[in-house]
Amino acid sequence: MDEISAVDLFAGAGGVSLAAKKAGITVKAAVELDKDACDTYRKNFVDGVDCKEKVYETDINTLQPENILADVGMEPGELDILMGGPPCQGYSRHRFKDQGVNDPRNKLLFRYFDFVSAFKPKVFIVENVPGLLWKRHKSFLTRFFELANSSGYKVFSPEKINAKDFGVPQNRQRVFILGVRNDIRVDDLEWPPKPTHFSPKSSSKPVWKNASTVFEKPDSISLIQEIIKVIGREEFDSLEFGSKLKSKDKNNIHMNHKDYMVDRFSRTPIHGGREDSGDILNCHSNGYKGHKDTYGRIYLTKPGPTMTTGCMNPSKGRFLHPWENHGITLRHAARFQTFPDDFSFSGGLISQARQIGNAIPIELGVKLLKQVKEFVQLRKYEINRDAG
Fold it and tell me: Which residues contact 170 (CB under 8 A, 6 or more apart)?
């Protein structure tokens, strides 16, 4: 089979690139502005590896697509897949009313298309948050579709895809947009792929992976008994736990919490939330009942919460360790994103959390890109056959 090539824009730490490699796709180049993320990318994909992949540590607004084509030795139309998820903060659900509409980062969606126009890839795929589909951002999405159509691409309707439906132990919903060049037949392309994992209430198997798969099984009898009191013996016995964490893993670190926070955590029971600790936060003193997941322990018996850029901080969501009195470690967060334990992140605690939270879950990426790869392989075979 011919090599299937790809370029990764807004590459971050390399989640999409890793998924592509696991799917059998050759990543030719990656573009990322953040220094720590680039260090992470090089450490895992370039340094010490027989790899000719080009990493551009630069602002994508100043980078000319033609330079990448020249560096990787390609002409327009030869690249198979263009991948990337433009920064999504402007489309985030945490922004209220019309906040984010004029966020300059939103225009990076159009900058992405500048590369589509220059590369003329057979296929492009864009990832973003569900907020991209909100009415307030309609003009951006409409303009993107207009650009794609006028440049010769058929664009499939944006698809909301949840990572938990594809074997990721995380309830993470994202939007994916797939575009295929008009000269490529799409009548038998199945998009998006069918889910591989299902709700426990469904008759289909296998079921969603629970958060327990991220954590090693507790070895304390008293702790096990405490968990069983909450979820029951049968439920506990059915849980799948993760492998033991490596003692020398530099990414297996968590926030250093102040003593009063550790005390609060110690009074938060298994599966408990901030209200169960007995403390009332100042912002909730007037009876406010929202944001109940803050300072909550992760549920062992369901897919984990969405890993955000603040995933190491229990004040940002239900990111408290299931039984220990601290937030989850960065390695736990990476496991929720299905990064392998030998994937190493660079930078400080906040930077690493940002890299992890911004990534596409690896196993979800693999399943999506395998579908795209098989489609492109078939079309390349047909093109070569017809040309012969």
Answer: 163, 164, 211, 303, 304, 305, 306, 307, 336, 337, 361
Q: Which residues form the catalytic set?
A: 88
- Over residues 200-254, the pLDDT tens digits come to 999 999 999 999 999 999 999 999 999 999 999 999 999 999 999 998 999 999 9
- pTM metric for this prediction: 0.91
In this structure, the strands spanning 153-155 and 123-128 are: unpaired
Report CA 305 to chain centroid distance, whole Å.
Answer: 12
State residue 91's pLDDT score.
44
Measured CA to CA in angstroms, residue 345 lies from 144, 244, 274, 353, 355 at distances of 33, 19, 30, 9, 8
